[in-house]
Amino acid sequence: MKKISKIILGICCSSSLLLSSCIEETFPTNSATDEQLTSSSKATEALLWAMPAFVNDYKTWNAGDYDWGYGSIMHVRDVMTEEMVINESNYDHYSAWEHNQYIGPNYLTTQWIWNYFWKFVQTSNKLIAGVDPNTTDETLLGYLGAAYGYRAFIYLDMARMFEFLENDKISSVNSNGNDVLHLTVPIVTESITEEEARNNPRVSREKMLEFIEGDLDKAEEYIKYFSRPKKTLPDLACIYGLKARLYMWVEDYAKAKEYARKAIDTGNYVPTNKADWTNTTSGFNDISATSWMWGASVQKEDDVVKSGIINWTSWMSGEAAYGYAGVGPVPMADVRFYNKISDKDFRKLSWKAPKGSALESQNEYCNPSSAVDMAEYASLKFRPGSGNVSDYNVGSATSFPLMRIEEMYFIEAEAAAHLNASDGVSLINSFMKGYRYPSYECKVTNQDDVVEEIVFQKRVELWGEGQSFFDIKRLNLPVTRAYEGSMHHAIGRFNTTTRPAWMNICIVQTEENNNKALLGYENPDPSDCYKAE
Q: Who contacts 40 (Cβ-Cβ below 8 Å, separation ≥6)?
């Protein structure tokens, strides 16, 4: 695994400058100035579209073949759980995260995550800086609402990934003797100076909550002026959805429940049905799906598609003959996880059923003849575009979800359960019976058990969508990979007793070199702290 130098790397700008003054290409010229970027409504519109474009940014850091945007960040989070197994392969570029190796502050894997997030923040900051909130131009105010929504989206991810939480292996007191418990990341706004960026500390959970909440309040205020042209941009329901995620993170269950319900009641989003879920041409690749609140899309002209193999479809769809997943490292369901799902639940058809099982004949494939060689339990959830398994120009020009309405139902149910177990039971029964299978019945009554059941059903629902990581970390759930019949790689068969230490993502060394406030306040390196069983 490639290490990065501890000296300042010779990139377009240093890590701290990246957070404040270095302009990423968000305008169709390499020499655009801030004034050019905000001098006309067309230029401001370009800044608007730069945000969904950056979701699919290609080679942000010119790292490995995992360097293809936010979808890859989602995949990183998923392979750090127990329910996603990656078929063993020499082509697996995500092995560091699967095996808890080489994910410390001096590795390219860590540098890429850090740089990607901060360049994304910068993209939203450019628009926020360019729009005067006192303007009477409602179009620009709508753009501003979308930008605040995107910035909150990214900061909430960073806060939850980089926040250090207690675990069963590594103390929050690092090698410098400083306690980093509940520290998140620095806050970088549109008005930060270089001097401030070079002495910008990690903030507490409480301070980050206040900041993100402020962004979402502004987004809620301005988004009413926004006539959303595509689902690659947020609407009011998405802002409510982000608030629901935010309040779950800080365990404000009353507010989480309130905003999840607001998201459900806003707009015309309807949970996915069996026909749409299992569709071999449009299954989980169509942003127009009724349940998708927010999504990412790419066209055949985009770099990630033209790469042929460095994109969402390549890594997530084992049916695509031209992709990475199709030749080896296909995502699969963990056996214990899979077996716990009822055969009556159509979501279980998201994976290739084992030979001789009751569901084997019910699986549907884009190309049944080529599916014979697919591994058992391999994912069938994310279909290539138009079901095309042979032409990457078609199959990789697709979409993946960033937020679905189903998540809001699960947040509402879990939040309710934390407040009153029976209310949680009522809500999960209502959703599952109405939208998944009529005979479902939550059979537990103890509060902890009810929460566990709701979260399990949520993990089934959102498998592969990058959300399970947050629930495991938030609820201090153990990860179990070592058991008889496990298909996890032998080197990654870890059983933890709490949330895994590896879910406290490290801050890269180059940022510490450029931001003196971070020196001595890094998350301890979790690499190799567990031994395979």
A: none
Cβ contacts of residue 309 below 8 Å, gap of 6+? 65, 322, 323, 324, 392
Q: Are strands 84-86 and 331-333 parallel, antiparallel or unpaired?
A: antiparallel
Sign of the alpha-carbon dihedral angle for 446, 451, 458, 88:
negative
In three-state secondary structure terms, 18 is helix
Residue 414: what are its φ and ψ, rounded to 5°?
A: -65, -45
- The pLDDT tens digits for 253-288 are 999 999 999 999 998 999 999 999 999 999 999 999
CA–CA dist 532, 203 (Å, integer)? 34
CA-to-CA dists, residue 321 to 284, 310, 327, 394, angstroms: 18, 14, 7, 12
Cα distance between residue 434 and residue 139, in whole Å? 39
13 has a pLDDT exceeding 60: no
Q: Return the amino acid letter for 341.
A: I
% of residues, the chain, pLDDT over 70: 92
CA distances to 23, 108, 123, 514 from 9, rounded to whole Å, are 17, 12, 22, 11
Q: What is the DSSP letter of 311?
A: S
Tokens read off for 246: 């935010």
pLDDT digits (tens, 9 = 90+) for 94-119: 999 999 999 999 999 999 999 999 99
One-letter identity of residue 293 = M
Nearest Cα to 202, choosing from 216, 181, 174, 217? 181
What confidence score (pLDDT) does residue 41 get? 76
pTM (whole model) above 0.90: yes
pLDDT at 40: 64
pLDDT tens-digit readout, 490-517: 999 999 999 999 999 999 999 999 999 9
Determine the Cα–Cα distance for residues 532 and 33; give it in Å rounded to an integer. Answer: 52
- Number of Cα atoms under 13 Å in the Cβ half of residue 431: 25
Give the pair of three-digit tokens for residue 495. Answer: 């059983």
**Cα end-to-end span (Å), the chain:** 23
Residue 6: predicted pLDDT: 29
Q: Name the β-bridge partners of 179.
A: 173
Distance of alpha carbon 266 from alpha carbon 268, whole angstroms: 7
Tell how strand 399-404 and strand 292-297 pair up.
antiparallel
Q: Which amino acid is it at 442?
A: C
Tokens of 53: 């474009």
pLDDT beyond 90 at 12: no
Count CB neighbours of 177 within 10 A.
Answer: 7
CA dist 527 and 529 (Å) reads 6
